[in-house]
Design brief:
Blueprint: E1 2-4, E2 7-9, H1 12-18, H2 32-61, H3 63-67, H4 71-79, H5 84-96, H6 101-121, H7 134-139, H8 141-148, H9 153-156, H10 160-171, H11 173-178, H12 185-203
Antiparallel strand pairs: 1-2
Helix pairs in contact: 2-6, 6-10
Length: 208
């Protein structure tokens, strides 16, 4: 998340443009190859990781409240989603919860992302070099989902470079203020309880 003039920006590509408001701190590498790698990670988040995060978070956080509503009320809320693919996905997530096929695809996308990150981080400290960049800024908040649901076994068991990378991200003051502080402790504990209960279903979609 990026905040400028009290406006919060979440999508990575939008963050990239918003950071132009502070040209003295660009978080962009000067090397053209590293810059292209940075753009790859940002695009990956926009196209793959962001939708996958929604697919595993939404049934965990929103499904119970949606099921308490009448079918007509649910349909009214769903009709307000402008994109048909996302609207149909939400219907499946309401009906099937974590058993929806979208969840399996999302977990596999997370895992493939982590595999690719481990390869990149075996060469340097951060995703696109030894300097913290927009690539790290864009990817790291999506690990908060794994952390808050206590699904860190996805990366802690087999991917030491990713584990260290995320620890370094969480240690940054900016991350503490923009991501960690956004979740009250009581909410964090409640999400952890739900996550522990759901971990067996999530783990089913990981390679053995």
């Amino acid at each position: 998340m990026f905040v400028h003039r009290s406006v919060k920006t979440y999508m990575p590509s939008a963050i990239s443009m918003s950071k132009d408001a502070y040209p003295e701190v660009s978080f962009r590498p000067n090397d053209p190859i590293l810059k292209s790698q940075m753009r790859f990670w940002m695009k990956h988040v926009d196209v793959k990781l962001h939708p996958s995060c929604g697919a595993i978070q939404w049934p965990m956080i929103m499904r119970d409240s949606m099921l308490k509503r009448s079918e007509d009320e649910r349909n009214v809320l769903l009709s307000k989603i402008p994109e048909k693919p996302r609207r149909e996905r939400q219907k499946r997530l309401i009906q099937y919860g974590l058993d929806a096929p979208d969840v399996s695809d999302a977990v596999k996308t997370y895992y493939k992302t982590i595999v690719d990150m481990e390869k990149a981080l075996s060469q340097h400290k951060w995703l696109v070099g030894n300097e913290f960049s927009l690539a790290d800024i864009c990817v790291s908040p999506y690990f908060q989902t794994l952390h808050q649901f206590e699904w860190t076994g996805i990366y802690e068991e087999k991917f030491p470079k990713v584990t260290l990378w995320y620890a370094n991200c969480r240690a940054r003051q900016s991350y503490k203020e923009a991501v960690i502080a956004e979740v009250p402790q009581s909410t964090f504990e409640a999400l952890g309880r739900k996550g522990r209960e759901s971990w067996p279903k999530i783990k089913l979609h990981l390679p053995s």
